[in-house]
């Protein structure tokens, strides 16, 4: 983890439940490796969103990141991922 970068953590149970919400068949199960992979992907996504929102705030000469900064970078995130 980079200096000064807050740790991003997700509970594996929560990620597993989020994944299973999108299954059409209730009998479909999520494997442990899939949960670990998705957890890592979510972590990367959240860190990138925070980094871009902070850069946007800096560009606007703001000392704090707010929801407007995040809303401005959201289209970038959706296109990149």
TrEMBL record:
Question: Per UniProt, what is one Pfam family of this protein?
Answer: CENP-X
User: Origin, by domain of life?
Assistant: Eukaryota
Subcellular locations according to the entry: Nucleus
GO CC annotation: what is one?
Answer: FANCM-MHF complex
Say yes or no: keyword DNA-binding present. yes
Q: Which residues form the signal peptide?
A: none
Q: Does the keyword NAD apply?
A: no
- Give GO BP annotations, semicolon-separated: DNA repair; kinetochore assembly; replication fork processing; resolution of meiotic recombination intermediates
Picking any one GO molecular function of the record gives: DNA binding
Keywords noted in UniProt:
DNA damage, DNA repair, DNA-binding, Nucleus
Q: Which Gene3D superfamilies match?
A: 1.20.5.4980, 6.10.130.30
| Subunit structure, interactors included | Heterodimer with CENPX, sometimes called MHF; this interaction stabilizes both partners. MHF heterodimers can assemble to form tetrameric structures. MHF also coassemble with CENPT-CENPW heterodimers at centromeres to form the tetrameric CENP-T-W-S-X complex. Forms a discrete complex with FANCM and CENPX, called FANCM-MHF; this interaction, probably mediated by direct binding between CENPS and FANCM, leads to synergistic activation of double-stranded DNA binding and strongly stimulates FANCM-mediated DNA remodeling.
* Family of the protein in this entry: Belongs to the CENP-X/MHF2 family.
Question: This chain belongs to which protein, by name?
Answer: Centromere protein X
Q: Which organism is it from?
A: Aldrovandia affinis
